[in-house]
Design goal:
Elements (H helix, E strand, L loop, with lengths): L2 H13 L5 H8 L3 H13 L3 E5 L4 E4 L1 H7 L5 H6 L3
Antiparallel strand pairs: 1-2
Helix pairs in contact: 1-2, 2-3
Length: 82
């Protein structure tokens, strides 16, 4: 997990809305390409999910909220990467 991952998840938890990577990047001050890549990775780990596949909107999952609450270990997520 990276600093951007935490910022992305915290942004979604704070705002409880679905957004595309460009809007998230604008609001958390990371580059669009970095946020887009990290959001894909977070979705691969089921911390985010696509809210609208066609438009590329994402939203936080219960698993993402559990991670922020300290109920999931980041090391567990990293060990599950392909």
């Amino acid at each position: 997990m990276t600093n951007a991952d935490d910022a992305i998840l915290e942004f979604f938890e704070d705002h409880a809305i679905a957004l595309p990577p460009a809007a998230v990047a604008y609001n958390i001050d990371f580059s669009y390409s970095h946020v887009r890549n990290r959001m894909r990775t977070l979705a691969d780990h089921a911390l985010l999910q696509k809210a609208d596949e066609e438009k590329g909107y994402y939203e936080i999952t219960d698993r993402g909220i559990a991670y922020l609450a300290g109920e999931l270990d980041a090391k567990e997520l990293e060990s599950n990467q392909d």
